[in-house]
Each structure stands twice: as C-alpha cells, then as structure tokens.
Amino acid sequence: MQRVLTAKGAETRRRILEGAAELLRTNGTAGVSLERICTSTGASKSQLFHYFPDGRSELFAAIARFEADRVIADQQPYIEDLSTPESWRAWRAAVIARYSELGRYCPVTALVVEISRTGPEAEGIVVDMQTRWHALMTRAVARLWSSGGGGDVATSGGGGDVAPEAAASVVLAAVQGGASMYQSTGEFVHLERALDGVLAYVGVT
User: Fold this and answer.
1) Which residues bind DNA (predicted)?
2) What is the DSSP letter of 112?
3) Spatial separation of the C-alpha atoms in residues 83 and 89, rounded to whole Å
C-alpha cells in the first residue's frame, strides 16, 4: 500500500529524489551511493530509508519513474498534436531547446543505459516509457499522413509499405541516436541533423 505523505513529507521526498537524479546525471549509477545522496541533499540516512524503505533499489526505481515522465513531458504540448508540418517543426525546436538546456546529459540514455540496470522495477519503468513514447509517435505520424501534411510521403501511403508504427520506430531511433552522439561527442550538430532527418522521413519539408 502506498503511504500518504504530508505536504512537508512529500516535499522532503521530492528533494531527495531530485538530488539523487542530479547526482546520477553527472556521475552515473556507479558514482551514486546512499551516503553521497545524503550529503548532497542534506538528508539523514534515517530520512532516506523512511521515504525509500527498500533503499537503493526503490530509490533508483523512483528516479527512473521521475526521468521517464520527464522524457514525455519535455515534448509537450507538441507531441500530443503532431498533425501538421508546423507542429512537427515546433516539436523539433522544443527538443533542441530542451537538450540545449540540459547540456550533454541525455535522460533517455541515462534511463536505458544506466537506470534500467539497477533492478527489474526500474527496467520495467524504462520499457513502459519507451512503449508510451512509441505509441505517441505512431499516432503522430498517422495524424500527419492522414491529413496529407506529409506531402508526397503521405499521398503514397507513408512512403510505400511503411506503416506509422514502423515510422515511429525510425523516429525514436533517430532522436535517441542523435542525442546519444551529442552526449558522447559534445557536438550538437548530430542531434540537429537527426531531427532534420526525422522531419524529412515523415515528409515535412
């Protein structure tokens, strides 16, 4: 049963969670110990175990949920209504702006490469995030093509035999690949080109 926290308790839990997530972004899971989290967030060990009784595994599952929700939230409100070329361009700009703000940290890479390995619950959260994101992009591609907004791609049925679901997989792979290259090289152009490729692939010129 999920515990009901007071407003103060919820704020303390969130402070610990956000501090732990920030440590993970800069140090990876190997560099995030419970002692370091306590030092960074000003929480005592008893407080940490009060809000995360199962310790490290529960905390990392909570971080995974926090970051997974943020991946989708960072693309709002555009991802819910990608039905026109203009909305796809606005989505691209929002993704670029968000990664520019985050620096070389990539929440998706952190989830897939780092957090998902901390336990089965965290892994399930990451899989669920990818499933939700793929479903949103599938609907987005379908809306664009059904409205004719994809130009020649739309009028040819999505570029031959390509279904929106398959196209969504290409979109996600391009975005995550470009973000991963940006993270590893520090060269922002890879992400920009990946997003340009996404727009061209779905027929937005």
Assistant:
1) 33-52
2) I
3) 11
Structure token pair of residue 84:
């026109």
- CA 136 remoteness from chain centre: 13
Report the phi/psi class of residue 157: left, alpha or beta, with left for phi > 0 and alpha for psi in -120 to 50. Answer: left
- C-alpha span between 175 and 178 (Å, rounded): 5
Q: Evaluate whether 117 touches 123 at the Cβ level (below 8 Å).
A: yes
Asked which of 12-16, 62-66, 168-172, 187-191 is least confident by mean pLDDT, the reply is: 62-66
Mean model confidence pLDDT for the chain:
84
CA angle centred on 124, ends 123 and 127, rounded to 5°: 90
Predicted TM-score of the model (pTM): 0.78
| 8-state DSSP, 110 | I
178: left (phi over 0), alpha (psi -120 to 50) or beta: alpha
> pLDDT tens digits, residue range 180-197?
888 788 888 999 999 999
Cβ distance 82 to 140 under 8 Å? yes
58: left (phi over 0), alpha (psi -120 to 50) or beta: alpha
